Amino acid sequence: MTAEPLERFFDRHEQLTAPVPHPGPLLLRTAHEEDLPELQRLDEEVFQEVAYPGFLLRQLYDMYAEHLLVLDDGTGRLRGYVLAATTALDRDSWILGLCVTHDRRRHGLGRELMEAVLDRLRRTGIQRVRLTVEPSNRAAILLYRSLGFRPEEPDAGLRPDYFGPGMDRQVLRLELTPGT
Ligand SMILES: CC(C)(COP(=O)(O)OP(=O)(O)OC[C@H]1O[C@@H](n2cnc3c(N)ncnc32)[C@H](O)[C@@H]1OP(=O)(O)O)[C@@H](O)C(=O)NCCC(=O)NCCS
Q1: Closest by alpha carbon to 119, among 161, 147, 79, 151?
Q2: Atom 21, ligand 1: which residue's CA is nearest?
Q3: Is any ligand 1 atom within 6 A of the Cβ of residue 95?
Q4: What is the CA radius of gyration of the chain?
Q5: Substitution candidate for ligand 1 out of 100, 114, 167 with most atoms within 8 A of CB
Q6: Relative to the CA of 152, which of 13, 19, 52, 96 has its CA 20 to 30 Å away?
Q7: Ordered DSSP codes for 94-142
Q8: Model confidence over 121-156: pLDDT tens digits?
Q9: Strand pairing report for 92-100 and 78-86
Q10: Architecture of the domain defined by 7-126
Q11: Model confidence at 25, in pLDDT bands (50, 70, 90)?
Q12: Maximum Cα–Cα distance for the chain, whole Å?
């Protein structure tokens, strides 16, 4: 599917604009502190009982703001986000959140968010990205696999009870190549 055109604004030094699509332009930008209440609302809308508590989102923002990207629809609503956490010592990282609101899915936005954060990670010298996904989450798994993520062995990445009883996850991994 063709990606929905986006306006992107990361910071004063990197600005890219694209044609304005129906149903309205979305801005892909780094999150601001003022976004936190709306980010929490969005996270709860999509992830419901497994949404991040507000205090944790706050602290994740404090640590990883440069890798927290949002889709801003210009009306005060966020329509998606991606968050990556990095480690300084071994150039490792984890994707801790990715979503697009229901009404904006299948327009290439999840891919845009992932590509943007992977690009940022690569440019800051990160060499490995991992994430966990529900083994039944076909949409997300297809997206991640199309970006080059593969199950991390053993057991094809399957980790029973990873987040607690009955909350199995699959761990996927991507090696980043500098300059690609
Ligand atoms: C996963 C998610 C972020 C994808 O966002 P999206 O904007 O709809 O995805 P895209 O339009 O960029 O699609 C990219 C690829 O993902 C796959 N994909 C996405 N949705 C799909 C679906 N419903 N069925 C099958 N494949 C799907 C396809 O491979 C697609 O590529 P294609 O369009 O070339 O076929 C979105 O479905 C979502 O927010 N889901 C709920 C939250 C979630 O599960 N997050 C991931 C947690 S690990």
Answers
A1: 147
A2: 139
A3: no
A4: 16
A5: 100
A6: 52
A7: EEEEEEE-GGGTTSSHHHHHHHHHHHHHHHTT--EEEEEE-TT-HHHHH
A8: 999 999 999 999 999 999 999 999 999 999 999 999
A9: antiparallel
A10: 3-Layer(aba) Sandwich (3.40)
A11: confident
A12: 47
**Helix-, strand-, coil-residue percentages of the chain, each rounded to 5:** 35, 30, 35
Helices of type H across 32-75: 36-47, 54-64
Task: Please indicate whether residue 109, judged by its CB atom, sits closer than 6 Å to ligand 1.
Answer: yes
**Collapsing DSSP states into helix, strand and coil, what is residue 66?**
helix
Digit-coded pLDDT (tens) for 153-172: 999 999 999 999 999 999 99
Close Cβ partners of 50 (under 8 Å, ≥ 6 residues apart): 163
105 CA closest ligand 1 atom index: 8
Report residue 104 as tokens. Answer: 């904006």
The domain locations on the chain are 7-126
Residue 17 DSSP symbol = -
